[in-house]
Amino acid sequence: MTRRRAELNSWISLGSVASATFGVFALGGCQEEAPPPPPPPPARVDRTPEAPVAAKRLNPDSLLETLEADPKLSFAQVAAPYDYTLGEAIVNFATAIVQGDELAMGDLLDPTGQAVLDDLAATGEIFDVADTSESIRVVYLDQTPDASSTANSARFVFAIKDPDGAYVVGWDGVKNGENWTFAAFEVTKDYRSSTEAWDSDSSTDFRPAAGAQASRGGFAPPPGVNPVAELEKNPGIAYFAIEMTAELVNIVGAPLDKAQIISLTATQLGIEESRLQELIDEGSEVIANGDHPDPAVIGGFVLAGRLMAAESGATIEDNQIVEAIAKVLGISQNEALEYFEQAKP
């Protein structure tokens, strides 16, 4: 199960690119029409209507028992889900990790994660994670909408205990129909004494310290991989990331132009805007010559875009993504559809 490892490693190490470029949704938001004025009050009000009741968190112990989860798995109370389908997907995913179940993991990963999983399975590394794991705990969970039994996106963190201590692995998830798909996001490399020591209701507890190397757990790129250096090796990805973001930002109506997207991305990557622009220009020539990103790259980017759009209350349809891919890569709609079908989570 060989892949174009250089390009794949580029994409894996570019979690910061996806976060930076798609962060424009969070910063810019969507332009929404003002709500209509409220109707006039009724002539007589007999009683004040009751406020809608928020969904309750699921009972973690009952959830684990119902799903016959691996006994190594537990939930922090602050990380108990409201949505049963989300809870089920997280339990199945965690169980697959601690049992080294490659097929079950692959069913829940985005295309990039699936490609990395193939490599890790080929080298046996994924089974090392299973063999050394003493316990795994869901220590953080944030879903959108919050306190709803029907979530459409989520961010959660596993704490995994091995002989050296407890480390964390972060995941973003989006729901497509009835199925959840997960993609790794960068978290701190710190260790703590136990998985329970990581319990938190704040995502800031898992951010890498300034200047520190982040961890992507068992789905990490080779040591020393630098996002900017990898962009310089593969400028086509820089071009694709910026141009695709600009297209999707336009679709959801965020009030940001391409110059602002480039500025935001450069800041997040710690690179001069002028250098990023040079990479984009170089990448434009690469793409024009027909050297297109691997479907795994496109798939990971599409998933990140869906997640960020969902978190800002926007929706991006499949046909809009296909049209954007066609425009950015300069290919026909049919060719773009083939790319999309290969890349679709």
- Count of helical regions: 14
Q: Which sequence of strands runs across the widest sheet? A: 1-2-3-4-5
Tally of strands: 5
Order of helices and strands: HHHEHHHHEEEEHHHHHHH
Structural class: alpha+beta
The largest β sheet comes out as: 5 strands, mixed
User: Into which percentage range does the β-strand content fall?
Assistant: 5-15%
Ranges where pLDDT stays below 50 over 5 or more residues in a row are 1-16, 26-34, 216-225
Span of the ends, CA to CA: 19 Å
Instruction: Kindly state the percentage of residues in helix.
Output: 40-55%
What characteristic shape results from the CA principal axes? globular
Arithmetic mean pLDDT:
79
Question: What value does the Rg take, in angstroms?
Answer: 21 Å
List the helices and strands and how they pair.
Layout: H1 5-12, H2 15-28, H3 60-66, E1 73-75, H4 84-99, H5 102-108, H6 111-123, H7 125-132, E2 135-144, E3 153-162, E4 165-176, E5 179-185, H8 227-233, H9 235-252, H10 258-269, H11 273-288, H12 295-311, H13 318-329, H14 333-343
Parallel strand pairs: 1-2
Antiparallel strand pairs: 2-3, 3-4, 4-5
Helix pairs in contact: 1-8, 2-9, 2-10, 2-12, 4-5, 5-6, 6-12, 8-9, 9-10, 9-11, 9-12, 9-13, 12-14, 13-14
Give keywords.
about 350 residues; alpha+beta; 5-stranded mixed sheet; globular
